Amino acid sequence: MYTSPKKDYIIVEHQDFATVKVIFDEVKMRTDTIIGMGSTYANVGFENIFERSNNGRVVETYLPDKTKVIGYREKKELPGYN
Question: Cα-flanking dihedrals φ and ψ of residue 72, to 5°?
Answer without folding.
Answer: -160, 165
